[in-house]
# Entry
Amino acid sequence: MASVTRAVWVQLVTDIWASITDDLAHRTPLNIRYGIKGNGPLALTASSGQLTCSMRNHAGNSVGSQGAYSPGHANARAGWTFGVPILVSLTDGVATAFSVSSVTRSGSTATATTSTNHGRTTGDWVEIAGAVETDYNGPFQITVTGVATFTYTVFNSPGTPANGTITSTRTHIKFRGKVRSIEPDAGQYREQQVHVTAYDGMRDLAEANVRDVALQVDQGEDDILTSILDAVPADAQPTARSLATGIDTYPYAFDQVGGGRKALSLIQEVASNSRGFMFMKGDGTFVYQSRHGRSITASSYTFSNSMRALAVPATLDNVFNHVLATVHPRSEDAEATTVLYALTGAPPEIQPGASLTIIGNFRDPTNVTDKTLIGGTAVVTPVENTDYDGNSAANGSGSDLSSSLSVALTAWASSAKFVITNNHATTPIFLVNTSGVTLLQCRGKGIYDDGPQTVESESAQPYGDRPITVDLTLQANPNTAQGLADFIRASRESLADQVDSLEFAAYGSNVLMAAAVAGEPGERLTLTEAMTGLASVDAFIQSVELDIAPTWMVARWGLVVSSTDEIFILDDSVSGVLDTSKLGYA
# Structure
């Protein structure tokens, strides 16, 4: 029977992973789930990944303290709190523990030399153990520098060279996130456990607001994704990124962000328009897999009647024979003279020496009551008496004090921030002109949605009309929409060779265990199963779920059949052949 070693690590001290594996409640398995839920035509972006586990909270735990995992308890472990980083590593029972002959350090870079060829590649994770200087120990992602050397990053400047009998073992990081829920069992007759829930980086992206982004003009989806991730607060950004090269070019993006949108909402919009796949790997890497990249991925796993369970569609829920796709052409003002934002209402008062910050969303000046956001570019530096004014009286009848104001303007894609400072020594200033009109505005070129254009693709089927609508908010070309509509309809109008999910007992064989610890969203596999009649059907992993106990592990993969995502790529050496058996749009 195959085996696996599970380990749970937390950063009780910043950047240092400490194992809390010994305090796991053995009768409660770890549960890990992450990836893209479902496999419908709009299932392109992952939701929040989740880890649940239980900790021993009685005096028999590794630190000998009741309440060690209860936040706020007098005996709570230092650093154990909400938001603490946490990861789970799985080490296959057949993984080789290589002897490390030396570990030296220069700055924060540790160089490990193994006694034999380690066989690792850059980006692999290893668990270092046995160093007397404990900062060298733990799970690390490595950079390979030779057949018997690799480097990794350490903290706290441990002594060099390291001492001890040191080993390096290949491991797989199957969850990385932050602790969000800590629920102790209270009461003397309960099991004295703490039940922990953590979420991966997709939850951070779902909660983080994005506003401070520049308008994107004629950019690819990888550039747009980079702008989104860069605009997220540092502590909410993914620990790593793997972004495929963009395929499409979008005339405009972020022109409707306004006062802010959730980062995940913007990512979902990019996924819908590019038909790419956005997800978080177990190790916390945010991945964009383009539709072209997915289509040429080779199969990594084969299951031939070796699964414990297999689910195929039993309803028409994800069957569609009528697809409507909408694009949104934009236009741009010829000159930077449009008032993109104007302050209205009673003029604000700014005290001497004080500053006032005002953030406004860009609106269509020809239809201010519509509340429709527009984008803006080429924003003009505010001009005194044209874009702002100042007066000693709220009705504009006092002295003109606009020369005592300084106005700093920061313009984003569809909003602007004004910081107005009153430099007068003694007099408050109102933002009003001598006609009594509140005056604070910014000018530039407006970006307008010229109205949606919808195309459709449909076929007659015995089951009737099954429609679906796809709103391509970043696309402008109706031919692109037509290609997508035809593609979705042709690949989704039948249930033939469709598959929903796969479940297998990882401990059943070394091959199955290797698949369970390594399998990630976006990877291709091949299925054959007698009861459903599937024969060498290729599918992609959409989501991963693992139940992990000390002596057993069950893996469940959400799947989408690969034929629904085959694309013509006429300039690719593998798939760039004219194959009429494949459907797709370029």
